[in-house]
Amino acid sequence: MKRLITVAALAALTTGATQGQNEVDALRYSQSYHRGTARFMAMGGAFGALGGDLSTLATNPAGLAVYRRGEISISPAVHYSSVDATYSEGGMRNDSRYNFNLGNAGFAIHFPTSGDLGFKNFNVGFAYNRRNNFNRNIAISGQNAKSSMADRFVSEANGLGAPTTVNGELVLPNGASPLFEQLAWDTYLINWDPNANEYWSRITDDAQYGQNQTQTIEESGASGEYDFSFGTNYADRLYIGGTMGIHTFRFIRSSFHTEDGITPDIYLNSFSLLENLDSYGSGFNFKFGMIGRVIDSESFFLNLGGAVHTPTFFNISEEFFTEMTTSFSPGEPESDPPTSGETSRSERNLFDYRLQTPLRVTGSLAAVVAKVFIVSAEYELVDYSTARLRSNLYDFNMENQAVNEQLAQASNIRAGLEARLGMFALRGGFAHYGSPYASSQDRAAAEMTSLSAGLGINTGNFYFDMAFVQNRMTETHYLYDLPTNDARTRSSAELDNRSALVLATFGIRFGE
Predict the structure, then answer these.
(1) What pLDDT does 58 receive?
(2) Which candidate, 202, 180, 145, 142, places its Cα nearest to that of 329?
(3) Distance of alpha carbon 179 from alpha carbon 450, whole angstroms
């Protein structure tokens, strides 16, 4: 028999941030690993001082002013992700996923001027640029002799106070999460001990650990930006541009956690928790950039570039639900026992909120030698601790404090090289994205490194480019949250994320 669920708990499902938007959500939608054309990707994305590529509408819009002809292109891509998860005594498990997507598509239109005032052209452009790819599968398993997810529910429940009696049934007090503690109570995973005046669980009461734990996670979705840009060229010395970006994303995450192989004499065979999140949002930002040619000779020129990206102002909607199942052996000695187990599912939690992402600043340089070799580099600075969550229904004070304390300033570096051999070109690139976490955090090593290579063919009016990009990042993942940082380490897995991207760009140039 299921325990009684309070009306107050059900009402909380539609009136507050019960799923718990936090620094993880703020970071996920603030990070940007720029995607674009094959040439852009092959050179590590270091185009801030080069321009002449539709990807720069999203990084330094002054690059649009470099165009001296019109252009239209499209860049389809194939993305492959692989995650090696190492956990407890379970060794390593691997899971992977393929995804077909669009890296970039857009056009630039060149409008020459008379040049009387020194301005030689005024260009407009539009491009879709993919900003982040959320597609990956994770599989984690192992024995845990130190903790259980049930510890989390017991700890949270003990912070609520004693249950009350309604119509002869014990019910959790107000404040219990209808997505977690209520389900644990409803399925008898946690119980109340009136003698000890505390909540307890069969698996945690006598520290009956050593159970098998399995967690599978499936993530899908992406973020992308629609960029509307303008640029102008002053005397082939100064290039100025601006972009209004419309940023959209969709993120879906399904997590299934199971614990079984539990000590037989406590009668609990297994329990599982399903968590499902569907999040989508849209926002806007502005970007301003300049490129200056500081050296210009027949055999060598050097450009310096800089750009500022305002925060993106997102409106986000989320739908979240959970489902818990327990299984018991016959002979459970409790006074009101389930005979075999219970399943309880939450209502769907709908919540709207706003996110302000951090400001971004970039500086770049590029050199062309003998009209054959191109060398470029770019530095980007972003302070993730300045992201802010907001809502008219919830103050997010604690969550924004966590953002401020746990996230930090990060430096991103991109570099690229191109060698032109007639109508052919060979390219290589490197990028390093610094950790967004404060050095005091155990996730502080979450840096990503990217290596890339590519080639291109340019006939003048038509060009074709290909690129291959390999990314790698290690991170710490917690199967569940526990009350203290020391306790959290009892549920941590190390994830080795590797991904590969293959993309091609088909482009046509037109006009004079």
Answers:
(1) 96
(2) 202
(3) 38
Say which residues have a Cβ less than 8 Å from residue 13's Cβ, sequence separation at least 6. Answer: 178, 179, 346, 347, 348, 349
Instruction: Determine the number of helices (DSSP H) and then strands (DSSP E) in the chain.
Output: 7, 23
The beta strand positions in 398-489, using DSSP E, are 409-421, 424-433, 448-458, 462-478
CB atoms within 10 A of CB 92: 14
| Mean confidence (pLDDT) of the chain | 90
Count Cβ atoms below 10 Å from residue 1 Cβ, excluding itself.
Answer: 10
Tell me the C-alpha distance between 262 and 326, whole Å.
12
For 273, the token pair is 């928790």
- Asked whether residue 453 carries a pLDDT value surpassing 70, the answer given is yes
Q: What would the two tokens of residue 314 be? A: 């997102």
Residue 347 near residue 10, CB atoms below 8 Å: yes
Q: How many residues does the chain have?
A: 512
* 319, β-bridge pairs: 278, 350
Number of domains in the chain: 1
Per-residue pLDDT of 187-242, as tens digits, reads 999 999 999 999 998 887 666 788 899 999 999 999 999 999 999 999 999 999 99
Q: Rg of the chain over CA atoms, in angstroms?
A: 27
Q: Give SS3 for 499.
A: strand
Whether 1 is covered by a domain: the verdict is no
* Pairwise CA distance, residues 277 & 163, whole Å: 29
The answer to whether 377 and 413 have CB atoms below 8 angstroms apart is yes
DSSP string, 138-149: EEEEEEESS--H
Which residue range is the domain that position 230 belongs to? 7-510
d(CA 49, CA 414): 12
CA atoms within 13 A on the CB side of 7: 1
Residues paired with 354 in a beta bridge: 315, 390
Position 8 pLDDT exceeds 70: no
- Entry pTM: 0.90
Task: Examine residue 429 and state whether it is found in any structural domain, yes or no.
Answer: yes
pLDDT digits (tens, 9 = 90+) for 253-312: 999 999 998 876 678 889 999 999 999 999 999 999 999 999 999 899 999 999 999 999
Q: Is 305 within a domain?
A: yes
Report in angstroms the alpha-carbon separations of 223 from 128, 273, 314, 394. Answer: 11, 28, 12, 26
Paired tokens of 360 = 């971004």
* Residue 494 counted as domain residue: yes
Rounded to whole angstroms, the Cα distance separating 339 from 383 reads 54
Highest mean pLDDT among 36-45, 116-125, 156-165, 490-499: 36-45
397-406 and 23-30 helices, crossing angle to 10°: 60
What is the CATH classification number for the domain harbouring 306? 2.40.160.60
457: β partners: 424, 464
Statement: residue 421 has pLDDT above 90? yes
Instruction: Say whether 248 sits in a helix, a strand or coil.
Output: strand
For residue 303, give the nearest of 56, 37, 131 by alpha carbon. 56
If we measure between CA atoms, which residue out of 450, 445, 418 comes closest to residue 431?
450
